[in-house]
Amino acid sequence: MALDLTSLPDVSGLTVGILGGTGDQGRGLAYRLARGGQRVLVGSRSAERAVAAAAEIGPSVAGAANEEVAAASDIVIVAVPWEGHGTLLASLRDQLRGKIVVDCVNPLGFDKQGPYALPVEEGSAAQQAAAVLPESRVCAAFHHVSAALLADPAVDRIDLDVLVLGEDREAVEAVQALAGRIDGMRGVYAGRLRNAHQIEAFTANLIAMNKRYKAHAGIRITDV
To answer: What would the DSSP string read from start to end of 44-91?
Structure first.
């Protein structure tokens, strides 16, 4: 079956919250989604930092503590550092119950040889999120998007594919549609959460490529 972007649901009226929205990836996603007309809430451990970041991103973006953002959002993107990933999600289990949770965290380490994938007991960050949030609709997406491109207002389009993984087909399609709110992007179904490890780990390869070629490489899937 060919990819039919016209069949995806309309998510334009949904509120998107970003946990860790004051970091580079979170801020970049907030900026692009808001630029596409989405209502965005930026979350942080510090409400003050979140409010300040939201004011810098744009007038259609608001900021608050992670707890408030999780409770007030329809779709929640997790863009926090790997070190605090499981602890934060466990603390927000009640606020995230029944919601689409999009995990874009890449468990990576760095040494003199460059970036490498870290082992995760559950298999991947997304699988850890699903284990911690059994009543949420967990998907994995937005792993291979350059934070620098997202945040650059001079870049009109970001021509790449966002690989979306998940068990809940309706949730996956909503995340595919959300990716399409950013000019140039397509959301492409890429399998179940058990396949998230290699998606997260491949980010290490992209970082190595970008360092070697001084680029902002992403992923484009052919023949779909």
So the answer is: ESSHHHHHHHHHHH-TTEEEEEHHHHHHH-SEEEE---GGGHHHHHHH
